[in-house]
Amino acid sequence: MYTTLSVGTFFSSSGRLHSVYKMTGKLFGTTGVRKVYGTEFDLSMALKLGKALGTYLGEGSVVLARDARTTGPMIEDALAAGILSTGVNVVKAGMIPTPTLAFITMHRGYNAGLMVTASHNPPEYTGVKFWGPDSMGYTPEMESEIERIYTEEEFQVAKWNRLGQEQTIDNAVDDHVASILEQIDSKSIESKKYNVVVDPGNGAGSVLAPYLMRSLACKVISINSQPDGHFPGRVSEPDKESLTDLIKMVKDTGADLGIAHDGDADRVVFVTEKGEVIRGDRTIALLAREELKRSKKKPIVTTVDSSKIVDETVEKAGGKTLRTPVGDIQVALKMKETGSVFGGEAAGVFIFSEFHYAPEPFLTACRILELMASTGRSFGELISEIPVYPLRKAKMKCENTKKSAIMSTLAKSLPKAMEDTVEVITVDGIGISLEAGWVLVRPSGTEPVIRITCEAPTDEQVEKILADAKAEVERAINGF
What we know:
By secondary structure, the chain is an alpha/beta fold. Among the domains are: 31-172, Alpha-D-Glucose-1,6-Bisphosphate, subunit A, domain 3 (Alpha-D-Glucose-1,6-Bisphosphate, Chain A, domain 3, 3-Layer(aba) Sandwich), CATH 3.40.120; 190-275, Alpha-D-Glucose-1,6-Bisphosphate, Chain A, domain 3, CATH 3.40.120.10; 390-478, TATA-Binding Protein (2-Layer Sandwich). It is 36% helix and 22% strand. It contains 15 helices and 23 strands. It has helices at residues 43-57, 72-85, 98-107, 140-152, 172-182, 186-190, 209-215, 244-253, 280-291, 308-316, 328-338, 361-375, 379-383, 403-417, 459-478, and strands at 3-5, 9-11, 17-19, 33-36, 61-66, 89-95, 112-116, 125-131, 166-168, 195-199, 219-222, 257-261, 268-271, 277-278, 300-303, 321-324, 342-345, 349-352, 391-397, 421-425, 430-434, 437-443, 449-455. The strands form five sheets. It has a six-stranded mixed beta sheet, with helices on one face. The chain has a six-stranded mixed beta sheet with strand order 4-8-7-5-6-9, with helices on both faces. Strands 11-10-12-13-14 form a five-stranded mixed beta sheet, with helices on both faces. Strand 17 and strand 18 form a beta hairpin. Helix 3 (98-107) packs across helix 5, helix 9 runs parallel beside helix 10 (308-316) and helix 14 packs across helix 15 (459-478).
């Protein structure tokens, strides 16, 4: 007989119960608002979101930035108009990465940061991410209040002579890079003269990532580094399938490291000198081991879809792992609650709380180079110490309006459909611990799909788990 854990609780590796946040809004997804422009999102929505944020804040200043998407300038202007109409000031930072926006929100003391982006989604998507003065994304409760104001249209309206003021800044990236360099042993990296290939995917990382590497005396080769909201070089989400050009370039040039980002550069994926694309959870495990050398008492935080290798590596290093629902805000919240210094998501999100609470891909890349320099070993050699368990992912199309009903059906049918179910965990979707492996089925907070992730000791076992889960999800979708 298996055990079921209800929504709102989850077990950490220590066996303790922990509370979690559950997102229930219709406008907001896993992180911020992300929708297809023209059919799900338009300028009037952006204007209202700006009014809602200005009303929520009441006063102060919002720093506003965007990624490379074609809709960015329009959405940015509409948001700014809405904010200014409430009497709140707007500071435009131009096209910069999301981590830079979050960093300067904290570093320069703005009341909020607003990023026009759809992150790793396809080019037809647009959206907005909200950041607080502590560099952390808005919590579900804060998003719910913004959504309430938006829906009820209870907007603060400033008089003609009390409107917010607008200004621009153009040195946000410089500030971010300078602060990153203060966190690392730059001289040790510079002494190695590493060859690095950087692939920002035509996104916002183009304005920072290659230049950061160059400042560390690396020989930098850039591909897909011209900002272009059509993402002509590859799809925005960096993974093994989309990084074929990067893999080839790393191998052809004999580079020491490959670095790839998504559209707004809050994610980073690394490629070894032999062209192997490394899963984010393995990189989490590698860096967690190093962080635990400084503070074994601080937990490492990751999400429910990370490999069990994170738990095993952390435990061997004398630490413990805490699991959260998917989403960088969930990781950041748990890190802040527990005093954790490091956490991340398997998708390529890494957070160093002593720097700030936003995803920090650029400091992560520097930490990798720093580790290579201090040990005299290649990235491939270092990551080879972190085992690989077969992990498979799939996503199945599902209308957003049907997700709730389908997940309710799966809550009853999926545990019975899987072989050797041991435990059911409803932290974020439906997680099922099996005698050999695990499977997680959850509705996407950013796309009209249901995602399936599974892991097992062997390829044969994980393929069987994925096939069984897909069949049951398909049955549930076809039932509506």
